[in-house]
Specification:
Length: 531
């Protein structure tokens, strides 16, 4: 991380101020040009912070960092001092990195209204809703999340949902410099566990829901919850400089468990009578959601183009946070109406006279259940679902996803998501265990075309999408679940370009021309061009 764009004139003592450390070798007054947590990105005069990771240990790269000119090394393990290099031993280098990065950038979160959104599902959608609301109020907004990071005219790709603490503080500092008023960020459980947001001053924390995911990392639901709850129990109570709002889904059992652990001010939302923000007179259609919201700030008649009851939850969450942070009810109503959609979340790929294709990011049992229930309520003639499960991720959710999809769909096409380093057919086998428990029959293509209920296995995602679109009819919906906005597929350690929306558009266009293989269309077009 180059110090050139960063704030000048810091020394190590300033970065360590308030941080517990065990031992220091060398001069605390040494000037610091920047910070880095990867040895290959260290520049002269910078601090290298050694992190213990899942693949390797940053302590192994200390010599490399010093070779590249590190002036300071922050570490957990005691080491032999290197002449000319200051060493600081701390109990937790991730905590130290978060703390020092915030100090290096002069605590940008203190100059922004930062809203942190956590929960298994709904974070991205809620962040888009909050963005639309704040924009309606005339504010400058920044968003940090799974789809991308954006502020002003800047749009940056997001390798992870919540950036590493150093990258996050750098980004928040850029937002502050660009006169952003409100930074809305998704806070993943990994980020909470790995202390990426530890030194962020949140104006509000928002809890959407908790259901099974990431158990490969957290082990069990209690541990997953304990990590999520840290946003509310530790981070919202850390600073003592003014109230920090908690917005919690009261209908979610884990939200109920969180409530007594959270200090006021708290706003709850949900359909239950006691919720602070709750809806009535609800209409859910293909056009979206219409409802009246009861809130401590008055009644709001809202409309939004987002579809499905679960999106009403996201609307309640966003409305609660915005109202609680002083946005007027009028701006909330305008923002909710202004949103045009969320990338890769029930994103339509439509063509006249064709089945409707919806690309969605449901990749947990709960998300699939909610999205399929939303489609069921819209009375399509048939629901055809194409989905797979990510490799090198929570295996235990796979049969559950299989069951949910079998229950909610007429035809299921099981395919690959991002297999990563797992064998695609082995992942599919895990999913099939769930379908078998539901006694869901295996079909051949002609049976699926003729309207039988059951499943097909087509491991190649492109072929699976083409087949779904070939067997679908107008009036039916084809849900392509799991990859949403992603523009890649990870096969082994290779990342190839792959976009469900492009694949669906190509297959729909082939279907319209009565061609089963879109490649034939492409070849014909190329021949015409060559002719
Ligand atoms: C499982 C996980 O979260 N891993 C994070 C972890 O990486 P790691 O444990 O693999 O790190 P490592 O490769 O073992 O390296 C350890 C340390 O040595 C350093 N190193 C390594 C090699 C070298 O030559 N020199 C060197 O200094 C590395 O920079 C690192 O600091 O620490 C890294 C640095 O802090 C993170 O970037 C990395 O996130 C990776 C990219 C990741 O994919 N994370 C995913 C699972 C994730 O966090 N996802 C959530 C979203 C989940 C959701 O859907 O809610 C997210 O917040 O995005
Ligand atoms: N409130 C909700 N409850 C349950 N499912 C939801 C909710 N909101 C969205 N979903 C489903 O979850 C999927 C992912 O939604 P979204 O991206 O908003 O959540 P997320 O928490 O950001 O997910 P991720 O962390 O995996 O990026 C959607 O495509 C939809 O299928
Ligand atoms: N942030 C989530 C995204 C999963 C998306 C799905 N397409 C997959 O690859 O499993 C994860 O890393 O578990």
């Amino acid at each position: 991380m180059s110090g050139l764009d960063g704030p000048a004139g810091k020394n190590l003592a300033q970065l360590l101020s308030g941080l517990k450390y065990l031992r220091i070798w060398g001069d605390e007054q040494v000037p610091v040009q920047g910070l880095a947590y990867h040895s290959g990105r260290v520049a002269s005069g910078e601090v290298f912070v050694a992190l213990k990771g899942c693949q390797t240990d940053g302590h192994l790269y200390i010599d490399k960092a010093i070779e590249r000119g590190a002036a300071v090394v922050v570490l957990e393990d005691a080491v032999e001092p290197t002449p000319g290099v200051v060493c600081v031993q701390v109990p937790d280098t991730r905590l130290a990195l978060a703390h020092m990065a915030a100090a290096f950038y002069d605590h940008p979160s203190c100059n922004l209204t930062v809203v942190g959104i956590t929960g298994t599902n709904g974070k991205t959608t809620t962040s888009y809703l909050l963005e639309a609301i704040w924009q309606a109020s005339g504010a400058q907004v920044g968003v940090i999340g799974t789809v991308n990071c954006r502020f002003g005219s800047q749009v940056r790709s997001s390798p992870v949902t919540t950036p590493e603490s150093l990258d996050l503080q750098d980004l928040l500092a850029e937002m502050r410099a660009a006169a952003v008023d409100c930074a809305i960020m998704e806070v993943s459980s990994h980020a909470l566990d790995l202390k990426r947001v530890q030194a962020v001053r949140f104006a509000a924390g928002l809890f959407t829901n908790l259901s099974q995911d990431h158990l490969d990392y957290h082990g069990d639901m209690e541990s997953y919850f304990a990590v999520k709850s840290r946003l509310f129990c530790e981070l919202l109570t850390d600073c003592g400089d003014g109230p920090q709002l908690a917005v919690i889904n009261r209908d979610d059992p884990w939200g109920q468990k969180l409530l007594p652990q959270t200090s006021p001010p708290v706003l709850t939302y949900g359909f239950a009578a006691g919720a602070d923000i709750r809806p009535e007179d609800i209409t859910l259609t293909h056009q979206g959601i219409q409802a009246r919201l009861h809130t401590p700030y008055g009644r709001l008649d809202i409309v939004s183009p987002l579809m499905g009851r679960y999106n009403l939850y996201n609307i309640l969450a966003a409305s609660g946070a915005a109202l609680g942070l002083g946005i007027s009810p009028e701006h909330v109503v305008t923002g909710l109406a202004n949103i045009t959609g969320v990338d890769g979340r029930l994103e339509p790929v439509a063509a006249p006279g064709q089945p409707l294709v919806l690309v969605d990011y449901a990749h947990t049992p709960d998300a699939l259940e909610k999205v399929l229930a939303a489609l069921k309520a819209l009375d399509f003639d048939r629901i055809i679902t194409v989905f797979g499960c990510g490799g090198d991720r929570d295996r235990r959710k796979r049969p559950l996803m299989g069951q949910v999809v079998a229950r909610g769909s007429d035809v299921v096409i099981i395919t690959s998501d991002n297999p990563r380093t797992e064998e695609p057919l082995a992942i599919i086998e895990d999913i099939l265990a769930g379908l078998r428990e539901m006694n869901c029959p295996r079909l051949d293509v002609s049976e699926a075309r003729e309207g039988h209920r059951g499943y097909l296995v087509i491991a190649d995602r492109r072929q699976a999408i083409r087949q779904a679109i070939a067997i679908g009819n107008p009036g039916e919906v084809i849900l392509l679940a799991g990859k949403g906005h992603e523009t890649y597929q990870i096969l082994g350690t290779r990342r190839i370009h792959f976009d469900d929306r492009e694949e669906a558009a190509a297959a729909l266009s082939a279907r319209a021309k009565n061609v089963t293989d879109p490649d034939k269309l492409r070849q014909a077009a190329n021949r015409r061009k060559g002719a």
